[in-house]
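cron nightly-structures :: item 1 of 1
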Amino acid sequence: KCSEINCLLIGIWLPIAKIHGEMIGIGSPIAKTHGEMIGIGSPIVKTHGEMIGIGSPIVKTHREMIGIGSPIDKTGREMIGIGSPIAKTQGEMIGIGSPIVKTHREMIGIGSPIVKTHREMIGIGSPIVKTHREMIGIGSPIDKTGRE
C-alpha cells in the first residue's frame, strides 16, 4: 500500500533509483546525463563539444580539434603557422625573429644577436664602441675628434 507520492516514485519515476530522464529515454542509470543519451556527451566525462567533433576527452579544446591548437599547450596561432610550441613567437615563425631571443631587426640584417646595433650592422658603427664618425673616416677611437 502506498501514498500517491510513493506510488508515483516507485511505479513511474524511481523504481530502482532511476531519475525521470532515464525513464523516458534521455538518461541512463549508470550516471549518464541527458546530453550523453542524445549523442552530445558520453559517460566518461566527455563534454557536448567533444561529442560533435570539436573537443576530445583527453582535455583537448575546441580550437585544437578544428586544427588551430594542439593538446600539448599549443595555441591557435602556432597551429596556423605563425607560432611554434617551443615558445616561438609569431615573428620568428614568419622570418623576422628567431627562438634564440633574436629580434626582428637582427633577422632582417640590421642588428645581430651579440648586442650589435642597427648602425654597426649597416656599416656606420662597430661593436668595439666606435662611433658613427670614426666609421665613416672623420674621427678615430683614440679620442680624436671629427675635425682632426
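cron nightly-structures :: done
The radius of gyration is 34 Å.
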